[in-house]
Amino acid sequence: MTAQSSPDPRRHAGTPFGGASPAEIRAALIPEEAAEFDQQWRAVMARATETLDLSEVLETLESWRRVARLTTARGTEAHRGMYRRAAERLTGADVPADEPLRRTKARLGL
Prior knowledge:
The protein is mainly α. The protein has five helices and no strands. It has helices at residues 22-28, 31-51, 55-74, 76-91, 101-107. Helix 1 packs antiparallel against helix 2 and helix 2 runs antiparallel to helix 3.
């Protein structure tokens, strides 16, 4: 891992979730994304165990910290609504409020 490719943990230290642990991140997520986080976390940790390289782990943490920050800043329903609005803009089709998040994210290619 090079210094240039690894996220600097101090970079966001003053922002919400800037130094959040995996458990703190998971606690802030909506249930659908907590399950997604669990799956991704286990996969990157397994790869890090084999490669002895933490860069993917650190990148994953930083990515999920942003999601946790957005979720807590706007609230869970607004967070879900953000995905619906993005999918509507991308596809030009209405996205029902009760559509499962997994399907909405699939519309977005996520």
